[in-house]
Amino acid sequence: xxxxxxxxxxxxxxxxxxxxxxxxxxxxxxxxxxxxxxxxxxxxxxxxxxxxxxxxxxxxxxxxxxxxxxxxxxxxxxxxxxxxxxxxxxxxxxxxxxxxxxxxxxxxxxxxxxxxxxxxxxxxxxxxxxxxxxxxxxxxxxxxxxxxxxxxxxxxxxxxxxxxxxxxxxxxxxxxxxxxxxxxxxxxxxxxxxxxxxxxxxxxxxxxxxxxxxxxxxxxxxxxxxxxxxxxxxxxxxxxxxxxxxxxxxxxxxxxxxxxxxxxxxxxxxxxxxxxxxxxxxxxxxxxxxxxx
Length: 293
Fold this sequence. Notes:
Layout: H1 2-7, H2 11-25, H3 34-53, H4 60-96, H5 98-103, H6 108-114, H7 125-146, H8 155-178, H9 182-199, H10 207-236, H11 248-276, H12 282-286
Helix pairs in contact: 2-3, 2-7, 3-4, 3-9, 4-7, 8-9, 8-11, 9-10, 10-11
């Protein structure tokens, strides 16, 4: 047990690393490029998953302050990412459906979404303010966590906390599988990412098992993310089905989008069932005999 405990990655150091990496990607007064925005958002998701894992070591007020910081930093950057994703997605569909998109030339929303500025625009005062704010609140979080007492957990404690996440994901899997509305799939994806980023702390203990599990879950989150991007695109188009009242070309585009969503879901369900289905357990996935904690 002492050897296993020594192998567990130092959670405080990892959390601080996520913040430092975000700060290095985020320069005050300049617009982050597309890759930096993506990387910072991933780091903030990892930070939220980590803070959830050690929530018992924070008082309620401190936990909420740190969680709010990581959540708001990610959310502020989300809209910048969405515009780029919508543009790339629509251009991808246009390549294989040229005639359909010619019929949609007069759709103002689609035209605007597909438009890309010839040059990088100057940072607006609003963006400059948001960038500065994210930078400042992350710096403050870094300082607070530096002086936060975080105990290196025993393996049994760590497994117990990760198992809580596993049980939550299992419940959300069954809920999403029985009712595949976007909100259920989105919640399943969010908690699945928590689980992915939390089992990272077990990697040194069972490297082959954990890396294999991480690979499977990461692929699931990617497909769920693509499904969600398409759901957001449909909402952005302002689409609502109404018999013979919509532009037929728009109806056709939405059908094409939903067919793509179906393909992503078909890749998710078999693997999700194998890991989180009825009768599955965290010890079983880790290859350890129950009870493990």
